[in-house]
Design a protein that fits this description.
By secondary structure, the protein is an alpha/beta fold. It has 14 helices and twelve strands. A seven-stranded mixed β-sheet has the order 1-7-6-5-4-2-3, with helices on both faces. The chain binds pyridoxal-5'-phosphate.
Length: 398
């Protein structure tokens, strides 16, 4: 079953604004019963009337109506030609690199989720694919790394965990024949639509803000063109790393409130970032909504700023690693956890948790200092988040 939509259908859908599309795209009332909430089609296979005569579905690795609805929804929100969903964000990234062949070369941002270099350095490199890590915030550094065999440029913007931005439009101008892939997990299409800025593929760990409630692991790749989408659907079926119908359904439910949630994540994060910036024991705060953020103007021009600057920030305490680790273990409301992008505020120590797979040298080059603390600001009352940080900073600095 394909998730491609015709140009005429796209025009009709384009008349709706983001919040409306997030609720309705891909989710007309169930044709069999009229159920407004899309059913979870918990089935392995589908009865065929005769050999080759079916209703578009044959086997749930190849296609499942609940997952198709999610794929249609995400394709529309990201303004792509189609979307393929996967069992995790890493499975989605694996599918993207599976577009490459022996001898191909890819450029990856120096600052990305640690799982991406782990995958490329340890697995794809064994199949004769070459990788270069470049500072993608500097288009000249990316340009210098491009070779004849460069087929992919993979960036995260904002990047995990330093929030460093990549200028998507600038990379599109220099990318030549390489495909630009943007991991849009931190922003979501409520804040940033890379395909509109010229990117070829958008990746999500839907585990994060897209589903938003700490209940699923999932991933997605949205393609700007039909050929890439078809190739990714082929990879999805061939490798079998598919999203389950139940996780698809929970993700669709999360998407219905995406715009609301992202606005509130941004409002709360702005308040937390301002509180931290004014704190005498904090040495640096990285948040794209702060005037002090080194790429504040790019943040404003690349983001749909009406929905704010997202829920992610990073900071460092005076007293470095020791103070940071003490803070993490003295939190009471805020949870010390690997995940991000959910209703609960979560704190991570990237050097020992999410980015432990990177070498210390690579981390330092990417600005992931040992004292850096990443905060995924949730949807609790912002004063309660600040109060908890305040008491933990006091204890950490004592
Ligand atoms: C930006 C980013 N991309 C991809 C991933 C991988 O996603 P998953 O954990 O769903 O496999 C993560 C996980 O933290 C992430 O932060």
């Amino acid at each position: 079953m394909t998730t491609l939509i015709t140009k005429k259908e796209k025009k009709q859908k384009d008349r709706f604004r983001f919040a409306t599309r997030a609720i309705h795209a891909g989710q007309a009332p169930d044709p069999a019963t009229g159920a407004v909430s899309l059913p979870i089609y918990q089935t392995t296979t589908y009865a065929q009337e005769a050999v080759g005569v079916h209703k578009g579905y044959t086997y749930s690795r190849t296609g499942n109506p609940t997952v198709t609805a999610l794929e249609e929804n995400l394709a529309e929100l990201e303004q792509g030609e189609g979307c393929a969903c996967f069992s995790s964000g890493m499975a989605a990234i694996t599918a993207v690199f599976s577009l490459l062949s022996q001898g191909d070369h890819a450029i990856i941002s120096e600052v990305v989720y640690g799982g991406t270099p782990r995958l490329c350095n340890n697995i794809f490199s064994r199949f004769g694919i070459k990788f270069t890590y470049a500072d993608s915030s500097d288009p000249n550094a990316v340009k210098a790394a491009i070779r004849n065999e460069t087929k992919l440029i993979f960036v995260e913007t904002p990047a995990n965990p330093t929030l460093k931005l990549t200028d998507i439009r600038a990379l599109c101008e220099i990318k030549g024949n390489a495909k630009l892939v943007v991991d849009n997990t931190f922003s979501t299409p409520a804040l940033q639509t890379p395909i509109k800025l010229g990117a070829d593929l958008v990746v999500h760990s839907t585990t994060k803000f897209i589903e938003g409630h700490n209940t699923t692991i999932g991933g997605a790749v949205i393609s700007a063109n039909k050929k890439d989408h078809e190739d990714l659907k082929f990879i999805q079926n061939a490798t079998g790393s598919i999203l389950s119908p139940f996780n698809g359904w929970l993700t669709l439910r999360g998407l219905k409130t995406l715009e609301l949630r992202m606005r509130k994540h941004g409002e709360n994060a702005q308040l937390v970032a301002e509180y931290l910036e004014d704190h005498p024991n904090v040495s640096q705060v990285l948040y794209p909504g702060l005037q002090s953020f080194p790429q504040a103007s790019l943040a404003a021009s690349q983001n749909t700023t009406k929905n704010g600057f997202g829920g992610m920030l990073a900071f460092e305490l005076k007293g470095g690693v020791k103070a940071g680790l003490r803070l993490a273990s003295n939190l009471s409301l805020i949870c010390l956890a690997e995940n991000l992008g959910a209703t609960e505020t979560m704190v991570t120590h990237p050097a020992t948790m999410t980015h432990a797979a990177m070498s210390k040298e690579a981390r330092e080059k990417a600005g992931i200092t040992d004292g850096l603390i990443r905060v995924s600001v949730g949807l609790e009352d912002p004063q309660d988040i600040i109060d908890d940080l305040d008491q933990a900073i006091k204890k950490a600095s004592a």
